[in-house]
Amino acid sequence: MAWVYLVLAGILEIIWAYAMKQSVGFTRLVPSIVTAVAMIASIGLLAMALRTLPLGSAYAIWTGIGAVGTFVVGIVILGEPFSLIRLLAASLIIGGIILLKIASPS
């Protein structure tokens, strides 16, 4: 179950990052509320995952999911620039996530 919590926490990290962008510096109420709720839920799920998963692996995977997910959201939804270098960087993060999962004892 810890891995499920961790993946959900990572997805919520993507949601709060996108909502924060939509809040325009916390000047829009609904996106600001979504940001706060998703942040709290994400950290709560991370804490639940940390009951059994190693800190270093769990934290790196959590931030990696958030980083790659927000990278994709930025390109697909926000129209941010796409380049092969950025794709390579995201691929390296994904590779690191996979290796951390393989190396994790839980």
UniProtKB/TrEMBL annotation:
Gene Ontology CC, one term: plasma membrane
Q: Which domain of life is it from?
A: Bacteria
Q: Which SUPFAM superfamilies match?
A: Multidrug resistance efflux transporter EmrE (SSF103481)
Task: Give the UniProt subcellular location, in the record's own words.
Answer: Cell membrane
Pfam family for this entry, one: Multi_Drug_Res
Q: Could you tell me the Gene Ontology terms of the biological process aspect for this record?
A: xenobiotic detoxification by transmembrane export across the plasma membrane
| TM stretches of this protein | 29-50, 57-78, 84-103
Q: Which GO terms describe its molecular function?
A: transmembrane transporter activity
> What is the protein's membrane topology class?
Multi-pass membrane protein
Q: What family is this protein classified in?
A: Belongs to the drug/metabolite transporter (DMT) superfamily. Small multidrug resistance (SMR) (TC 2.A.7.1) family. Gdx/SugE subfamily.
Name recorded for this polypeptide: Guanidinium exporter
